[in-house]
């Protein structure tokens, strides 16, 4: 199920978002869209990110530059949390 493909046009219709929004996310490098036989697809694993970005864009009126900045800040936070976890694990070894 992790590699399952979702048709972009169907997803947009069901979620009430513009297909051009998916284009903006793709152009910004925030998601990858696969094209097969003329149909565009998202992977199932990308759906939480697309939903998060669409809430930012439509509900909070955050522009694409803001979404990109938030994306990079969240990635950096996750990296720092992993590093902190690793350092705490190493510290436990020395106790």
List the helices and strands and how they pair.
Blueprint: E1 5-7, H1 8-15, H2 19-27, E2 34-36, E3 39-43, H3 47-59, H4 64-94
Antiparallel strand pairs: 1-3, 2-3
Give your account of this protein's structure:
With 95 residues, the protein is mainly α. The chain has one domain (5-94): Orthogonal Bundle (Multidrug-efflux Transporter Regulator, Chain: A, Domain 2). The chain contains four helices and three strands. The protein has helices at 8-15, 19-27, 47-59, 64-94; strands at residues 5-7, 34-36, 39-43. The protein has a three-stranded antiparallel sheet. It is elongated and about 60 Å long. The protein starts with a strand and ends with a helix.
Tally of individual helices: 4
Average residue-wise pLDDT: 93
CATH topology: Multidrug-efflux Transporter Regulator, Chain: A, Domain 2
Structural class call reads: mainly alpha
* CATH class annotation: Mainly Alpha
In one word, what is the shape? elongated
Largest sheet: 3 strands, antiparallel
SS strand fraction: 5-15%
Number of domains: 1
Rounded Rg: 17 Å
Order of helices and strands: EHHEEHH
Query: What is the name of the CATH architecture?
Result: Orthogonal Bundle
Helix content: 55-70%
Task: Give the strand order of the largest sheet, numbering strands 1, 2, ... along the chain.
Answer: 1-3-2
How many E-type strands?
A: 3
Low-confidence stretches: none
Organism: Bacteroides oleiciplenus YIT 12058
Protein name: MerR HTH family regulatory protein
Pfam family, one: MerR_2
């Amino acid at each position: 199920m992790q590699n399952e493909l979702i048709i972009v046009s169907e997803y947009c219709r069901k979620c009430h978002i513009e297909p051009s929004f998916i284009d903006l996310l793709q152009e910004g490098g925030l998601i990858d869209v696969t094209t097969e036989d003329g149909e565009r697809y998202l992977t199932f694993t990308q759906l939480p990110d697309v939903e998060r970005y669409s809430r930012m864009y439509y509900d909070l009126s955050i522009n694409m530059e803001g979404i990109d900045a938030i994306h990079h800040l969240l990635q950096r936070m996750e990296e720092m949390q992993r590093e902190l976890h690793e350092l705490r694990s190493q510290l436990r070894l020395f106790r």
